[in-house]
Request: fold
Amino acid sequence: MEIGILKELGLSEEESKIYITLLKRGSSLASYVAEQTGINRSLVYQILDRLISRGYVSYVIKNNVRYYNPVSPDKLLDLLKEKERKLKEALPELNNLFQPVKEKPIVEILEGTEGIKTILNDILKEKQEWLALGSGKAPELLSYYVEHWEKERVKNKILMKAILDSSEAGKKRGQTLSKLSYTKVKYMERKYLSPSSTWIYSNRLVLVVWSKEHPFAIRTISSEIIISYKNHFEQLWKLAKNTISTS
Reply:
């Protein structure tokens, strides 16, 4: 048990055995330590020198012979505190050197309406706030699936914040969404928004291209990238209007 604790403190097995032997006997010759531990005498001298340099062992010379003494176990706490103090002093410099490994973004292309449905199902799975920006053409291509999906989103209490364009499709989509719980809708003029849709949720950024012939979505998974896009959305949300002119 004692050896296990000392090893956790950073001592090797041989160092731990020698220190414990000295604790039991007190002032001892290197030959006695070698005999009790079964460690080669020349290696015992090397280990004792290491323990001395680290503050675990001291020695006295009597009749030109070295007698080795263990420091009190209480002293080990002081040694640990001193190491902690030195580490705290070095932390600022060490942190400046530290370069965390950046997450490599994952980019996927999902084709067709089934690919877009895969992303919508992923939104339900992640159960985090969904930010939607741009066109409101989803019902045109996904038909009744969208209505069913919206019920599931509300059931899972997933908040949606949508900024739609001022097209007829956008207005119609906004009127439908505004009737749902866990849904907030605002509008911007069409010239400020792309005809595609941008979806932001969890650590995912999705660009949906609503082509009637070949719809597809590009999904990027990256915690680092998503932060800037969420901030961008929130800035647009402040500028967007709660209603749009019907003229």
Notes: The chain has a mean pLDDT of 88. The beta strands are 57-62, 65-70, 106-111, 130-134, 160-165, 183-188, 197-201, 204-209, 216-221. The first strand starts at residue 57 and ends at 62.
